Amino acid sequence: MQRIVTKVAGEVGFYFAIAFFVVVTTFPFYWMLITSFKSNPDLYDVTNIPFWFNEAPTLEHFRYLFEQTLFVRWLLNSLVIGLCVVTITLIAALPAGYSLARMTGRNGEALGIGIFLTYLVPPTLLFLPLSRIVANLGLQNSMWSLVLVYPTFTIPFCTWLLMGFFKALPPEIEEAAIVDGCSLFGAFVRMVIPLSLPAILTTVIFTFTLTLQEFVYALTFISSSAQKPITLGVATDLVRGDIFFWGEIMAGALIASVPVAIAYNLLLDRFITGITGGAVK
């Protein structure tokens, strides 16, 4: 009897914990969803219940975003910046991670840790020297300045991530390809990269997410509304002095975050494989 009670209590505790984490993780999306469809009288009346509709839902906030702001342009800017940074990061991080993984001794691991430590340097310490570089290149107030700057923190992290995954791949794979007539580069392209697709996918997701959520560099280098990414445009152009357009802000945040959340869930298995691939050698 005691064993049954213990088992039931364990199952109840397990499902309670699952329900708790589900509520915690989904509440921000629920709050963005309900706020973006609330009318302004419903939204700003402090006597109303904030967790439900007290008046009929409305699309006025979405109309304002698409008709009265450059929201579509901000989305396109973020997409272009993300794709460019992902491409640059893969071109640099793939060979760098592979080279570090195949270095003999402790030199590769020490160098990899050193590269990763550069990722930990906060942007608040780097935006001043980087702003000088951006100014010398004539990229002030241009989204291409972000394409130049963002790889400074995406490449170190992704190099370290890929290095751990490449270490899990046995060197015999490349050696067999070389015996069959491939060059080292050919073995890397034909054998290593196809086996590393989970890690590459993880790198793409991380890189795009990092560029999408970055704010300090965007705020420093861009002031024109037409050049802003989505994070900066929503946070600055939808605030007038001390007035926050909460309906439009939540609508913009919802549109920007839901596709990323869906991508994470659809690719969750490969994402976990890429993260844990370098954990076991």
From TrEMBL:
Keywords annotated in UniProt: Cell membrane, Membrane, Transmembrane, Transmembrane helix, Transport
Transmembrane helix in keyword set: yes
SUPFAM superfamilies: MetI-like
Keyword Membrane: yes
PROSITE patterns associated with the record: ABC_TM1 (PS50928)
Protein's GO biological process: transmembrane transport
Entry GO CC: plasma membrane
Entry's localization field: Cell membrane
Domain ABC transmembrane type-1: 75-267
Residue intervals passing through the bilayer: 12-33, 74-98, 110-130, 142-163, 243-264
Protein name as it appears in the record: Sugar ABC transporter permease
Organism: Bradyrhizobium macuxiense
Taxonomic lineage of the native organism: Bacteria, Pseudomonadati, Pseudomonadota, Alphaproteobacteria, Hyphomicrobiales
